[in-house]
Each structure stands twice: as structure tokens, then as C-alpha cells.
Design goal:
The complex is a heterotrimer. Chain A is α/β, with parallel strands linked by helices. Chain A is built from five helices and four strands, in the order H-E-H-E-H-E-H-E-H. Chain C is mostly helical. Chain C is about 50% helix and about 10% strand. The chains are: A alpha/beta, B alpha/beta, C mainly alpha.
Chain lengths: ~170, ~160, ~400
């Protein structure tokens, strides 16, 4: 950069590929519509005019996993639903991030029973955990900002540390 | 509980079916009749068609596991009448070795999935049910989870999730 | 259905494919709100056979409640129909109080009516909003989400401490009394936010040609079939059957209010929408009357067997401490017996069948969810129609998976 700096007029910016791509990725994270239970209602509330998630570029909820790059697992994952979650996660294209929203997706929540997967991180890698039952929309926005910072700093995604052998 | 007249519903049931009505009570305001499981379809048809009773709504069907008592399971039907506006609860015990009872789908079509759920959760079999498969749990699940001897937090291997 | 296939075969109009195509809708699909699965056999666009499948959100409410005390079950009940959680709490508390023989105070009954009607309004808003999103009218979703947000922020959160999953009722009363200024705020929100929102959506939809074409005649059911299948609630009333538990088996203080029950004619999607809109207006009437008639007094029954003692007694007297300890560790002691108690939830008859063997926790609780028979009736409503109509009907029937799967 030393050679070309200050040699052109002021409306030319020099940067790295990574910085530009990261900026593009984090400004338009498209979540996949994966509301399972009560947390889905709070996720929908994050879209409403008061907590406006479109300020962060994330209001376009895609139905198809091929078009999304962030999966917000909002709600309880049951044993019957687990293969479906895994298949949808596999269908998403890289780079992808996962938010485990709510207590049920983090660790099974208040349900320690035969039919509830004790946390979605048993089947897919999770980047950010959002505690709450259900978490209020401000927490969801906070976690999206956290993901944006993770993307900016270029740190390794949870996927690179996966699978963690317990 | 104040001593009052047995209700119309229970009186008619006892009058028509006599000994097949094993026990009745009206505790807490709910008319309840415990019946013999062999005649359940006849009893339900009578409840639906008799002009004084007219139980056209089948509200609920469930099973209860009385572990330690003989017979072990109980199938409970809740019925409601739109015209007469009364309710009744019919119970029928089924033993553990032979947990079979006739399906009441010929009487009320809406009991279909309730019976499937009772089968899934308790293992109660319904004779002549058109499609007795698991409804809430996945197909490969083993056991009947709402039985009292099934531990709450038993894990079975998750099917279908491969690397 | 087999008749359609046979008829088309005769007329020579059966599609070139000899076999019907099987289309899997869900369990992750924008139109199946939460986790429902429908397997449709299609001939072109016509549905020949529809098989619903669910259980993807089975969270074992009944097994959990068998291992909990009576009060510990209350947070599990509000995750049943999570869109109107206060109604589930009220239904459960009423069932246990019927078993105990406890009569709650008048103020408590009025407050329960208020929260039930508010929950009914927000539930219908979700149903209509999401139904319209599926059909393509997205604006109504936003129009209805604003009043929901106002109710959450200004009414439910100050009252219970949390927006969605409330756990507000207790056996013998409520968690605590209404906060200061709640009554005025409730009136303001009903008048300034909810009424205009309903009017806006009404103006957009009710005489809208596209909406009428899309919903009239779609998914119709006649009264006899609806009764045989166990339908209750707005779907049954849309079919023409005047069953509403608030009038027919009146509970709490509903008999003191003057309100109407809207009845439809055809039982199709358009009727279900109209019934829900009118029910929201009637709920506003009930709320107005309840706020006017709200009496003073305690909200909890004055009975130490059911109600936690005051904190002052817990910290200063040994009897209060022991009472509190017994309540928390052992639970409320409820007599043995069984009871079935039903209330008119937003979607139909929500029934709780409770078996108790005495002691601090239930032996068995069965919830009779209103959407169970409705989802069971989906094949009857949709077979013979087109695949696009299936989406319209699914939204109008208002299946909440938390309640369906428990």
C-alpha cells in the first residue's frame, strides 16, 4: 500500500480483499427462517418496527437454506427434529454462522426429558449462544452485533473447531 | 360433598347397561362412570344416539397408568353434548398383559389421533384402528414414554444425524 | 381422493403422469408456523390425499409435570400455547382450584378475565397476521405486530415481569396485584392502538377482491362434520355451530358482561377470518366492561394452605418460615381425585384433565389442546382443493405446535 497511498484523488480507498468481503458479509447477514417454538415469536418481534433488525441488514429471512448464511435456531430441538436441523445446516453454503437462541437451543432448557435434545450444539456447531427464555429482542440484536464483530475480526468460526469430542 | 340425586346421564347408563357400569361418582361436579371394556363401543353409541343424552362431541381420550394396581391402564373418554350441555367421563380399565380395547372411531371420527397418541404414549392397543402408528415420537423410538416405569431422562441414540 | 382420480381417468383429463406426485411440506417451511409436516399426494395441483405429521416439538409436558409440584407446573403450561400464555395459566389454575374446592376472590376473577381477553386479542392478531403473510398480504402482519408490541411492553411486562412466557397465576390467586396505572394504560392502549389497528386491517382486507377470491369457499366444512371431528373455537363457530364456553358453561365472571359470539355460515377461510376479527372487537367490549366493574380487594385467597405467607412473616416468625418452606419444598397439598376443567382459549376448548393422588404434585395431567382435532381435520378441509389453498387453510386454522405436540 505504501506505493499508491496519497497518489490518487480522495475518492479512492485502498483496502484488503478480506476487509471488503468481511464488510459485505457482516452488513447483510441473511438469516434462515428456523423458528421452532416460543423463541420464534420473539424473533418475529425483533423484526417489528420497534426493534428493527433491518438496521443491521438482517431482515431478509430466507425460507431456503441455500440462500441463507445465518441460522438462528429459535426454540426447542427435539430428537425427532434433530436430523432435519442437521440436514438443513449441511445444505447451507459456506461461510455460515449459527446462533443458538434461547435456553432450549443452548442446553435443552427446562426440559430434561427423553425427547428433547440437550442443546443444539450436540448436532451442529454454534457460534453465539443467546440465553433467555425467551430472550428479549435487544439480546438478539446484541448477538447479531457480536457476530458482526466476529466476522470483522476474521476469527475462526465455530465450524473450524467442530466436532468437539466430549 | 352434598348428597344429591345421581345425574340423568349416570342414571340412564345404569338403567340400560346395569352391571357393565362398574362404578360411578360425581366428585367435584364431574359425572364419571367406570365401565367394562368389552362393551365400550355399545356404550359410546348409546351415549351418542339416545335422545336424552346426545353426546355428539368427543372431547378427549387419554390413558392413565396406575402402576401397582391391577388392571394397570385406564382409558378415559371425555364427552360433551352440544344440545343438552352436559359432560360425562367414561373410564375403562385394561390390564397390562392384554392392553387391548375396541376403537371408538366408528362412533366419533375425531377420536382417531387421540387413540394413536394413547398407543404411542402408553402402549394401549385399539382393535380395528385403521392406522395405529406412533404420532408424537419418531418411528424408531422404543418403549412407551408416559408409562410410570419409563424414566423421564432416558436418552436413546438420535437417529438420522450422521457426520 | 380416489373419486377424483377415477373421474379424471374416465374423462381422460388425468395428468400424463400415471402416478400422483408426493410433495413434502415441512417440517421447516415458511408457511408451517413452527414444525408441522404435511405430505401431499398431488395430481397436478389438486390434492388427492393429505397426511399430516407432527410431534417435532414434543417436549414432554406431561412427563415433566409428573415430577414437579403443582406450582412448578405453571411455567410449563405457558409454553403450551406460547402466543397467549396467560390463558393457559388461567386454565390450569382453575382446574387445580376446582380440585381443591377453592373459590378465588372477585378481584382475582376480574383480572383473570382481563388477561384472558387481552391474550385472545393478541392470539387472533398472530393468527390473522401470519395467515396473511402466507397469502401474500404482508402489510397486515406489521399492522398487527405494533399493537402486540404495545401490549407486551406496556401491559404484560409491567404486570408479570416478562413479555411472553408469563406464569402469572397461582393456585388460589395470582402472583401479585395489578401495578399502579395499569388500568388507565390498558384503556389507552385499547382505544388508541388496538382499535385503529383492527380498523386498518379491516379496511385493507375485508372488501379486497384478491383476499375474497383467495379465501372464500376455500377449506369449507359443514357443521355436522365439524362436530364429529371435535372442532371447537373459531373454526367451529365459523361453520355455524354456536358453541362458546364463555356463554354455555360460564366460568369466572363472564356472565356479568354483555358481549356477542360471532357465528359464520360456510366454515371456509373467509369466515374464520371474519369470526376472529369480530371476536377481537367483542373482546374489547369485555375489557371495557371489566375495567369499569373492577372491584377492590385482595387478589389471593386468605388461606395459608394455598398462598405463600407475607415476606414479613417469613423473616420474622417461625410459623411463617415453616409455612413458606413447606410450600416451596412439598408443594400445595391437593386432595386426591380427578377433574376435567375446560376454558374457551383463543383457539377453542382448552381442557385440563388432572389426576391427583393427594400430595404436592400431580399424578397425571393431560391437556386437551384445541388445535389437535383441527389439525386432524386438515385432510377433510383440503383434499380436493389445490395446493395453494392448503397454505391459506393451514394459516387460518391456527395451529400452534407447542400446544399440538405438548
Amino acid at each position: 500500500m505504501g506505493l499508491i497511498e496519497n497518489r490518487f484523488s480522495k475518492n479512492i480507498i485502498t483496502t484488503t480483499y478480506d476487509a471488503v468481503f468481511n464488510w459485505a458479509r457482516r452488513s447483510s447477514l441473511w438469516p434462515m427462517q428456523f423458528g421452532l417454538a416460543c423463541c420464534a415469536i420473539e424473533m418475529m418481534s425483533t423484526l417489528d418496527p420497534r426493534y428493527d433488525m433491518s438496521r443491521f441488514g438482517a431482515e431478509v429471512f430466507r425460507g431456503s437454506p441455500r440462500q441463507a448464511d445465518m441460522m438462528i435456531v429459535a426454540g426447542t430441538v427435539t430428537e425427532k427434529m434433530a436430523p432435519v436441523v442437521k440436514r438443513l445446516y449441511d445444505q447451507m453454503a459456506d461461510p455460515k454462522w449459527v446462533l443458538a437462541m434461547g435456553s432450549c437451543a443452548m442446553c435443552g432448557g427446562p426440559y430434561k426429558t427423553y425427547a428433547v435434545t440437550q442443546g443444539v450444539d450436540r448436532i451442529i456447531p454454534v457460534d453465539v449462544y443467546i440465553p433467555g427464555c425467551p430472550p428479549i429482542p435487544e439480546q438478539i440484536i446484541d448477538s447479531i452485533v457480536l457476530i458482526q464483530k466476529m466476522i470483522d475480526s476474521g476469527g475462526s468460526r465455530a465450524r473450524d473447531r467442530w466436532p468437539i469430542k466430549i | 360433598m352434598t348428597d344429591k340425586q345421581p345425574s340423568v346421564v349416570l342414571a340412564k347408563l345404569i338403567e340400560r347397561f346395569g352391571d357393565d357400569i362398574v362404578a360411578t361418582h360425581s366428585d367435584f361436579g364431574d359425572d364419571t362412570a367406570r365401565v367394562n371394556r368389552e362393551r365400550i363401543v355399545e356404550i359410546c353409541t348409546f351415549l351418542r344416539d339416545d335422545p336424552d343424552l346426545l353426546f355428539d362431541f368427543a372431547m378427549d381420550l387419554t390413558g392413565v397408568d396406575y402402576l401397582g394396581e391391577e388392571p394397570r391402564f385406564e382409558v378415559v373418554y371425555h364427552l360433551y353434548s352440544l344440545e343438552k350441555k352436559h359432560r360425562v367421563r367414561i373410564k375403562a380399565r385394561v390390564p397390562e398383559e392384554d392392553p387391548v380395547i375396541d376403537s371408538v372411531i366408528p362412533v366419533w371420527v375425531g377420536m382417531d389421533w387421540f387413540e394413536r397418541e394413547a398407543y404411542d404414549m402408553y402402549g394401549i392397543l385399539f382393535r380395528d384402528h385403521p392406522n395405529l402408528k406412533r404420532i408424537l415420537m419418531y418411528e424408531a423410538f422404543e418403549g412407551h414414554p408416559l408409562r410410570k416405569d419409563y424414566p423421564k431422562a432416558r436418552r436413546q441414540p438420535t437417529v438420522g444425524v450422521e457426520e | 381422493m380416489a373419486e377424483i382420480e377415477a373421474y379424471q381417468r374416465e374423462a381422460g383429463t388425468l395428468d400424463m403422469q400415471a402416478e400422483p406426485m408426493i410433495l413434502n411440506i415441512g417440517p421447516s417451511h415458511p408457511a408451517t408456523h413452527a414444525t408441522l409436516r404435511l405430505i401431499a399426494e398431488l395430481d397436478g395441483e389438486t390434492i388427492l390425499k393429505l397426511t399430516p405429521e407432527f410431534g417435532y416439538l414434543h417436549r414432554c409436558f406431561e412427563k415433566e409435570s409428573e415430577n414437579a409440584t403443582w406450582t412448578q407446573v405453571i411455567p410449563y403450561t405457558d409454553r403450551l400455547n406460547y402466543v397467549s400464555s396467560l390463558m393457559n395459566n388461567v386454565g390450569y389454575a382453575m382446574a387445580v382450584e376446582k380440585l381443591c374446592g377453592v373459590e378465588v376472590t372477585e378481584r382475582c376473577q376480574y383480572i383473570r378475565v382481563l388477561i384472558c381477553e387481552l391474550s385472545r386479542i393478541i392470539d387472533h392478531m398472530v393468527c390473522i397476521g401470519t395467515n396473511m403473510v402466507d397469502i401474500g398480504a404482508l402489510t397486515n402482519f406489521w399492522y398487527f405486530w405494533k399493537p402486540r408490541e404495545e401490549v407486551y411492553r406496556h401491559l404484560i411486562e409491567p404486570l408479570t415481569g416478562i413479555r411472553l412466557t408469563t406464569a402469572y397465576t397461582r393456585i388460589g390467586g395470582l402472583m401479585w396485584d395489578l401495578p399502579d396505572g395499569w388500568v388507565e394504560k390498558c384503556r389507552d392502549i385499547c382505544r388508541d392502538v388496538i382499535v385503529p389497528a383492527i380498523a386498518d386491517v379491516n379496511a385493507l382486507l375485508t372488501k379486497n377482491r384478491i383476499f375474497i377470491e383467495r379465501t372464500m369457499g376455500v377449506g369449507a366444512i359443514d357443521p355436522k362434520e365439524a362436530i364429529a371431528r371435535g372442532f371447537t373455537g373459531p373454526c367451529l363457530r365459523a361453520a355455524g355451530v354456536p358453541l362458546d364456553l364463555r356463554k354455555d358453561e360460564t366460568y369466572l365472571v363472564y356472565d356479568r358482561f354483555d358481549f356477542d359470539v360471532p357465528i359464520g355460515e360456510e366454515g371456509d377461510t373467509c369466515d374464520r377470518y371474519m369470526v376472529r376479527m369480530e371476536e377481537m372487537r367483542q373482546s374489547l367490549r369485555i375489557i371495557d366492561q371489566a375495567l369499569d366493574q373492577l372491584p377492590e380487594g385482595p387478589v389471593n385467597v386468605d388461606d395459608p394452605r394455598f398462598i405463600l405467607p407475607a415476606k414479613k412473616d417469613v423473616y420474622e416468625t417461625i410459623e411463617g418460615l415453616m409455612n413458606h418452606f413447606k410450600h416451596v419444598m412439598d408443594g400445595v397439598q391437593v386432595p386426591a381425585g380427578e377433574v376435567y376443567s375446560a376454558t374457551e382459549a383463543a383457539n377453542g376448548e382448552l381442557g385440563y384433565y388432572i389426576v391427583s393422588k393427594g400430595g404436592g404434585g400431580p399424578y397425571k395431567i393431560k391437556v386437551r389442546p384445541p388445535c389437535f382435532p383441527l389439525f386432524q381435520g386438515m385432510p377433510h378441509l383440503c383434499e380436493g382443493g389445490m395446493i395453494a389453498d392448503l397454505i391459506a387453510v393451514l394459516g387460518s386454522v391456527n395451529i400452534i405446535a407447542g400446544e399440538l405436540d405438548r
